[in-house]
Amino acid sequence: MEEKASYADIEQLSFKEASIELEQIVRSLEAGDLELEESLSRYGRGVELLKSLRKRLAEAEQKVQLLVDSTEPAVVADTTSAPSTAYLDE
Fold first, then answer.
1. Which has the higher per-residue pLDDT, 80 or 42?
2. CA 42 to CA 29: how far, in whole Å?
């Protein structure tokens, strides 16, 4: 249950806040001066933060792609040329 509460907490963070927290976790793990239990706890939190950040990036990429797609010119039939007059020659 605590894991779900932790995930909900992560979703409340801004992208920048989650990124900063993840960076802090990485630094603390790289320092190597934590107890095993604390390292595992922080590692788990880092994994959840990373999942959330990747999900948000994927959603942002989709939004950007939709915007790009909506601004690309649509294929339109050429209505500027004169209509065929072949039937007038008969």
1. 42
2. 8
